Amino acid sequence: MAKLQLPDALLIDKYIAGDENSLALLINRHQSKIYGYIYSKVLDRDVTEDIFQETFYKVIYTLKQKKYYNEEGKFLSWVLRIASNLIIDKFRNDKKMPLNRDTEDLSVFSKITDNTHNIENTLIKNQVNIDLKAIIEKLPHDQKEVIMMRYFLEMSFKEIADLTGVSVNTTLGRMRYAMTNLRKVIEKNKIYLPT
Question: Rounded to whole angstroms, how far apart are CA atoms 6 and 125?
Answer without folding.
Answer: 46
